[in-house]
Amino acid sequence: MSETEPQNQPVKFGTFGGVFVPNVLTILGVIMFMRTGWVVGQVGLFSGLIILCIANTITLLTSLSLSAVATNTRVGRGGAYFMVSRSLGLEIGGSIGVPLFLAQAVSVAFYVIGFTESLIPFFPELNTQLWAVLVISAIFGITLIGSEIAIKAQYFIFAILVLSLVSFFSGGSDLVHLEANLGSNRAPDAVPFWAVFAIFFPAVTGVMSGASMSGDLKNPAKSIPAGTLGAVIVTFAVYAVQMWWLARNADRPALLGDPVIMNEIARVPALIYAGLWAATLSSALASLLAAPRTLQALAGDGVLPRFLARTSGKKQEPRVALVVSFTIAILCVFIGDLNAIAPIISMFFLATYGMLNFISFLEKVVGNPSHRPTFRVHWALSLLGALGCAWVMFLLNPLATVAAILAMAGLYFYLRQKRYQAAWGDIRSGLWFSLTRFGLLRFQTSTQHSRNWRPVILVLAGNPAARPRLVKFANWMESKCGFLFLCQILIGPWEKVVPRLAGAKQAIDTFIKENNYSAAAQVITADSLDAGVTNLIEATGVGPITPNTVLMGWSEDDHKHDIYQHTVRRILLSKKNLIFYIGADKDFTDRLDSHIDIWWRSKRNGILMATLAHLISTNTTWRKHKVRIFMVIENEEGLEDAQTNMQTQLKEYRIDAETIVMTSDKPIRETIVETSKFSEIVFLGINLEAGDNDERIYEEMEKTNDDLYGHIFVTRSWEDFSA
Q1: Given its phi and psi angles, is residue 377 left (phi above 0), alpha (psi -120 to 50 degrees) or beta?
Q2: pTM
Q3: Which of 450, 474, 522, 675 lies at a CB distance of 3.0 to 4.6 Å from 487, suitable for a disulfide?
Q4: pLDDT tens across 667-677, in order?
């Protein structure tokens, strides 16, 4: 759905007709007519008012959060779905929006079935399913003509509801029962307080009916806060006065035993049934107005097939979505027992309310500069509303809560696989920025100890898609406990290479995302390789999170170039660990042994190699591989002491490996080749120093390269290091 609405919009609705009336008609529903008297009879007037205050507090907090969110962004079609998706992304918005649409569509059937069942005392032979279909069809006909006709129909229903309340409050009994009804029911079969609360709470959950009309409002940012808060305040007053009037004019047995006790108190009893019917029909009408608009918004964003978002007529009504909603409602009538589905539907509504509270809370604490709502709400109130919704969900029905959470989680992961690219900015980037900022500032001031060393590796990968094994090896060493910077240096005249920067960066970002690496892309321009490496080492990272290790590949000709040796010296002068990976261009073979070998020459390189080998072995691919540490000494007399010393060091650094100390009369390179020729990974320490320019070292590395499969040359920085 486009973020920009067409200019030739149909006639839209104001605060009263578009928000206030739909909300009031949904809140003052079946619970008011058939359960409020029972609530007072069970817990008494005082506790009944407490239940009302707790329930309305959660609703009021949700309304405040809804108002804050609605005034912080342009609100389009889809109501609650639109607000959630624009704040937390399409995946979360869709996981809330699809169940919300289904809840709205199925609710049409619930309300109409309630209406037809209330007719049974007058028409005992009534076929409730047939009449439910006829009533839904009539409501469908009203909404099919257009939302404007539906809004006018709501005015008529609203008038009937007002007349029924006038009839109720103008009536009364000759006896006053108020004092007897102040306290709770003390009978053995009395229902506990929180069980009564759970039955009453759905009465106040109609605050989203008006918000669902967001795309049809003249000014959503003005109408949603005013209409919603106005409806909450008015309906709270109606329920409070109704409880008092019931407690005053009916005794406890009548409150508990007569579900339509209002009929006995009213001056014109027939108007109570008229109000009851008006309440059920208005709720059905409001739901059949809301459901298609939620579906239209979902389809417009591509969460559901886009043909569902098609409109027709001069007023651009979502008639395709309306037909789908009508069909679902009709099918639900023939399902039969809907009681098992009803609690889950309530959970979807409450989950939506809780998410809106949570969004309002996040928007404030994340501190996005774009967060400038004209209706301001303190973050603590929004957080309290979110927690209240979660608490009520579990209070109403724990199993239904779990079922709703699992359904929404499944939708979230399904939608996440579709990898949406939204055309708007949501709150998630701001959330991660705030968390990152918080962590960096705390990390900056924390005590840095070598015991907490983690591999932050600068990988000179070039185009990583061309060197996937080098990057995969880096990912194994990082092992989800460090970080990778995949770097590419574009060498050449600045004016020629700069146009390639964006494309190269995008290619690496795509590579990282497709392979799910813990990495960030870094692409720079430079006149030469060593200048580029120097710039990368100096500029890569944020605050204290900077590379401590450089990983680079090795080819047979690289070491012969002075520029390559100069680059190596630059890295060592920067006090970075340096790792040469020499298996990048070799084919895998089935003849290899499941070994990770380390050739220990000194503690300086040995501990780093052992730590990297340990990290690699924690990956699923290498979990069954055996880590072996070899050490060659000159004298056999020192074998036992060397073995004991080696095991002591490994125990100190908590590394699980087999230690093998040996003597050999052969050159060390031959011993390494004979022992580790078919090992999958071989770590070799080299004693390169920043000032070295010894061609013999590079020649020795090249000879070893010819005889081993996948091996790594490691040289340590001079900085203190501990595993």
Answers
A1: beta
A2: 0.64
A3: 522
A4: 888 888 888 88
